[in-house]
Amino acid sequence: MDAGKRNIAFPIIANYNCIVKFFIEKGMDLNYIEQPKMTRRTLDVGTKYSPDYVCAPFKSTLGSMIDALEAGADTLIMTMGLCRLGYYGELQEQILRDLGYEFEMINLASYTTGNVKDYYKAIRRLNPKISLSRFTKAALIGLKMLEYIDEIEALYYRNCGFEVNKGEYRKAYEDFLMAMDMVNGRKDIERQYRKTRNAFREIRLDKPDHPIRVGVIGEYFTVMDDFSNLGLEQMLADMGVEVHRWMNPTNRNLHYKGQKNLGVQISEYSRFEMGPTSTANIWCAKNYAENGFDGLIHVKSAGCTPEIDIMPVLENISRDYKIPILYLTYDSQTSDTGLQTRVEAFNDMLRMRRAAI
Amino acid sequence: MSKKISIFAREDREITVGLPRALLYHRYEILWKSFFSELGVQCVTSPRTNKAIIDRGIERSIDETCLSTKIYMGHVDALIGKCDYILIPRISNFGIRRFMCTKFEALYDMTGNVFRGSGQKFLAYDIDVVKKTGEEKAMIAMAEAMGFSRKEGKNAYKAAKRFENDDWKRKVREEERKLRTDQIKIMVAGHSYITEDEYVGKPVIRMLEEMGVTPIIADRIDRKEAIRQSARISPTIKWEMSRELMGSIQIRRNKIDGVILLSAYPCGPDSMVNEMIIRKFRGLPIQTIVLDTQEGMAGLETRLESFTDVLKLQRGEL
């Protein structure tokens, strides 16, 4: 850690903090403070200082910010967003200041003016001497990392439930994530990616021709963050299910087909865009149903308005395609035993249904 | 009012449009009603919210959705089959940082999916200023969807807008007049679909009046000024209606004794904005009341009474 440089932190979000780290250290030449992985304490502290019925990601990200400040961060970055997320930054900053923390806040929401160039101002504020070429290069490599992480993660959850020797997939996957945390440049990333793909290929699988397939859809944050959804995908995979999840930054942001292209495919269900990820989720649910998936799981945090609003649509899809949907709502108190029971029952039901048909 | 238009509508067959008396109805009542009357279209409004409407609404809603939406579904249900179209707003935003709760973005399609198979036709009032669909365009689109010409729609909109502006000025003046009394003045800060709702907000306002308090309705304010003021307190606040409320508190904070933040469970924007208001307006007495479908007003009355007593104590009247 170099003295005299800013110590920057970002709330923990799924597996993506290694990208933020790479970007800040390599692209902006600043220190990145890595807070410890989220624990129950993170969530408890976050919940304690949060308003009562705000959505759960607010609480966990607030807790994560406190973790970061305690680990020595002096600058926090918070993202903008299209739902309540867009107001997270300002309220969290206010709460932290009222608690007495001293730090600088870069809230991307306050740079959201309709002009993309204004985000550059935020970057200039972080490091006024930034080199544009270095920054662009790091950004492009960061995007590549994002694609690889999403690809490896998708492969992992699709197959890890069928390995012959338990734990092989997990090991290769964890090695990959750890390596991503320490990469130095483009070549490094490519090498780690290929290594992991090869390692995955070597693992012996005992997979039936038509395994039970479940599509996981839902709210952007909770569906991706395995701490927040209490390891839902792993739980399913361990029951011998092929788990599919379309929703990740690669698909939703980087290669998003847009409202025009997706909206037209779900026009019988919705005429307008219903919320930030609504079109994607409805399209996804319909797509899974059409491709003969056994069931869908809809994940959201308690009070997530856009996801609650698409539930009537999902119910209609479930009716039209005769596909069962399990609705899961997570708040800061959810215990994983209750979840385990519900997911097990859902899995049993899917298998019985398969046997009957 | 152009005679030709009304003859056209009447000759054909009188069109009726249903307006559910919930959510944005209270905000757009004058605009919509005068627009339809200019076009010679008959308006049917659902009755004031009552127990039966709420119960029907709860039956048709996802249980996690907010009380206001449940009430809305009840109102739509009451209109099904009683009119040619039911008007349903779909409002995304009025510009950058002037968004609506995502509820209003989804409302049209959500209602359509809930009442799928009822055979009812819906009329969309679609506003998305970021994507270049403003109020005028939305109104004209509604007229065109009912078979009127663009020109007829435009004229009716112009007239309706005039009515709305006059009415709004009158309402704001009335609120300003109330600020001049010597009574205890409590600002009731809640979305218009809470404060104006017969079953949810009106009882609170009536209770306050019975206690000898003058309730000031927060969102009856010069909206432009309120939005400007709110940006000074909380720059990234993104919901139009929350901005109006926050700005209104800022503008009138020295003329009122206290504020009641009135919201319905679980309102998304309020869950955050109310917290910010409490943190930003230190020194101003604030009471938060979150309403649900619970019955029995005794608990609520006690809370209002004790809040009023605190304010009286502060004034030295107790």
Automatic annotation (TrEMBL), chain A:
Pfam families: DUF2229 (PF09989), HGD-D (PF06050)
Protein name: DUF2229 domain-containing protein
UniProt organism field: Hornefia butyriciproducens
UniProt domain DUF2229: residue ranges: 12-243
Gene3D superfamilies for this protein: 3.40.50.11900
UniProtKB/TrEMBL annotation, chain B:
A Pfam family assignment: DUF2229
Domain DUF2229: 16-220
Taxonomic superkingdom: Bacteria
PANTHER family per UniProt: BIFUNCTIONAL PROTEIN [INCLUDES 2-HYDROXYACYL-COA DEHYDRATASE (N-TER) AND ITS ACTIVATOR DOMAIN (C_TERM), BIFUNCTIONAL PROTEIN [INCLUDES 2-HYDROXYACYL-COA DEHYDRATASE (N-TER) AND ITS ACTIVATOR DOMAIN (C_TERM)-RELATED
Listed name of the protein: DUF2229 domain-containing protein
Organism from which the protein derives: Hornefia butyriciproducens
